[in-house]
Amino acid sequence: MIKIGWLFYKNGEVFLLNLFNNNTDLVKSINNLLLVGYYLTNIGYAIISISYWKQIDSIPEMLNSLSTTLGKIILLLALMHYNNIFWLKYLNKSKLLKSIHHGKL
């Protein structure tokens, strides 16, 4: 999960730079916040999952428990990722509409 967060951080910078007119200071700040949020979500979910774990008596039970836990966190992170993409696209679209309206294109 650490590698995935880092990949989102590095590759997402391109989209943020486009959205915020190459304002590198703002993009670095937003990108750092997104990365911290990603890691905190992972850590929080792991802690909550561990606190609700039941006693596991066999390897198949362990694999089932781990796959369920990983599946849930991956789905949660995917939903959060698509939510972020939606809002970034919305912001970018509203920026484009304002530019058209004010004759800046």
> Roughly how much helix do the residues carry, as a percent range?
over 70%
Radius of gyration: 19 Å
Largest sheet: none
The gross shape turns out to be: elongated
Number of DSSP strand runs: 0
Low-pLDDT stretches are none
Number of alpha- plus pi-helical segments: 3
Mean pLDDT: 84
Q: What amount of the residues lies in strands?
A: under 5%
Terminal-residue CA separation: 41 Å
Class by SSE composition: mainly alpha
Give the SSE string. HHH
Model description:
With 105 residues, this protein is mainly alpha-helical. The protein has helices at 2-19, 24-51, 59-101.
List the helices and strands and how they pair.
Blueprint lengths: L1 H18 L4 H28 L7 H43 L4
Structural features:
105 residues, mainly alpha, 3 helices, 85% helix
